[in-house]
Amino acid sequence: MIANLEQFYFDQVNDLYSAETQLLGILPQMAEDASCPELREAFKNHLQETRTHCERLNMIRNRLGISDQTGECEAMRGLIAEARKYLTQTIPGGLRDAVLIAAGNRIEHYEIAGYGATRAFASCLGFGEDAHLLGETLKEEGAADAAITKIATGGVFHSGVNEAAAQFETAPA
Ligand SMILES: [Fe+2]
Ligand SMILES: [Fe+2]
What we know:
The longest helix is centred in the middle third of the chain and has 31 residues, at 94-124. This protein has helices at residues 5-33, 37-64, 74-88, 94-124, 128-156, 161-170. Helices cover 82% and strands 0% of the residues. 33% of the residues are buried. The protein has one domain: Ferritin, core subunit, four-helix bundle (Ferritin, Up-down Bundle). One fe (ii) ion (FE2) binds next to helix 2 and helix 5.
């Protein structure tokens, strides 16, 4: 049972930590799978940032005395499983970049929601340093989401993308 907000906050910090460590596993593949150089760069940059996100959460976990990981973030596991499913159904190129953008946006929005709520809990509980660290990560998640969206609206989804996708579909594997 979770008896109070502090315990729920501990749980949420652990959940975010699980989500971030799962992302460390897929972001290198997402970067490798991207054909658009800017998209590849965005995923590489975010992989670097994600390592920092894990470090920040570890600082919080150490302060709270959380030493081991309990439970897995099932939502992130689902988002990653869905991304992998679509990646196996597409070949590299514009269409796969669209898959990566859709998956990236979903993942970032999930993280933004998680960090936003958890930072609010930290503030409520008077954990000012935690709230600051969580806020730093929250800003980076927002920037990563904006970067992916900018790439999508600035080039990957342009007129003729369906024709290009049709060519990919008929191209030999
Ligand atoms: Fe993150
Ligand atoms: Fe992220």
